[in-house]
Amino acid sequence: MSRTIFVNGAFVAEEDGKISVFDRGFLFADGIYEVTAVIDGRMLDNDLHIARLERSLGEISIPMPMAKERIVEIQTELVRRNNLREGVIYLQVTRGVADRDFGYAEAIEPSFIGFTQAKKIVDTASVRDGVAVDVADDPRWARRDIKTVMLLGQVLAKKHAKARGFHEAWFVEDGHVTEGASSTAYIVSKEGVIVTRQNSHAVLPGCTRRALQAVAEEQGLTIEERRFTLDEAYDAREVFLTSASSLVTPIIRVAQRSIGDGKPGPITRRLQAAYLELARTQTAPIL
Ligand code: PDD
């Protein structure tokens, strides 16, 4: 059965959705995206995702395609029309359509599309058993705080990591971990302190990371925001990652090094459970 997607102002069957060859998203990766998780027919941390969409667009001077409230209505309608109980909603805004030129006129109208992807998020083998992450030099540009669709560094790193039997790749710069190719990176120190890199231009400010800070505080756990090295990760008591589409996922191996006893650790488990509980209660179900 075909999905209903949203393309420039209209809900259409996926095979009928069309974007111009001259769209600057296609020609220059000149655009921004967001991914919101849906669990039990509820959108997770969506206010954070919409706020980050607005921020990312502002950083590259693309206007919001419409009011935030209208965007949320469109997301809600996508969940309804596709009967999405569990999966993600993808949104993308590009600068719009114009004849190919690096420079652009101020008056271009942004293109705006949205679609859903049904997939398991909560009960996956990764979330249950943990994953292994590869390590690679960070190949990306210097403004990783902007969630652009310019993702070739991530695409190639993840492909390479998958081919070598890893689930995700962790990027390293100046001897320190920046983040995963599509996730935020954490370690738990020997003292039980959760460490994740501070927000800056070097990393995407994760929405799940933000939500997890409140969860950790509630659990009496401390999150220290600072850079950490790969050696610290190898020696950590626990390691995990977060993202909208993978929630809190344990990491049981970094490169060839087993973490702890090679099983998901107790602090990661506590955070998983507390975050899921919050996710299931924080918003009214759409379906
Ligand atoms: N990726 N860092 C990077 C580079 C990411 O691409 C993502 C998310 C995150 C985690 O952010 P959040 O918790 O807001 O999802 C960190 C999404 C899921 C994606 O590209 O599909």
What's the structural blueprint in terms of helices and strands?
Blueprint: E1 4-7, E2 10-13, H1 24-28, E3 31-39, E4 42-43, H2 46-59, H3 68-81, E5 87-94, E6 111-118, H4 125-129, E7 131-137, H5 152-163, E8 168-173, E9 176-180, E10 184-188, E11 194-196, H6 207-218, E12 223-225, H7 230-235, E13 238-243, E14 247-254, E15 257-258, H8 266-281
The chain binds N-(5'-phosphopyridoxyl)-D-alanine (PDD).
N-(5'-phosphopyridoxyl)-D-alanine is lined by residues 35, 179, 182-184, 204, 206-209, 242-245.
Structure, described:
The protein has 287 residues and is of the alpha+beta class. It folds into 2 domains: 4-118, Aminotransferase class 4, branched-chain amino acid transferase, N-terminal domain (D-amino Acid Aminotransferase, Chain A, domain 1), CATH 3.30.470; 125-279, D-amino Acid Aminotransferase, subunit A, domain 2 (D-amino Acid Aminotransferase, Chain A, domain 2, Alpha-Beta Barrel), CATH 3.20.10. Helix content is 29%, strand content 28%. The chain has 8 helices and 15 strands. The protein has helices spanning 24-28, 46-59, 68-81, 125-129, 152-163, 207-218, 230-235, 266-281; strands at 4-7, 10-13, 31-39, 42-43, 87-94, 111-118, 131-137, 168-173, 176-180, 184-188, 194-196, 223-225, 238-243, 247-254, 257-258. Strands 7, 8, 9, 10, 11, 12, 13, 14 and 15 form a 9-stranded mixed beta sheet that branches. Helix 6 packs across helix 8. The two termini are 19 Å apart. The model has no long low-confidence stretch (mean pLDDT 97).
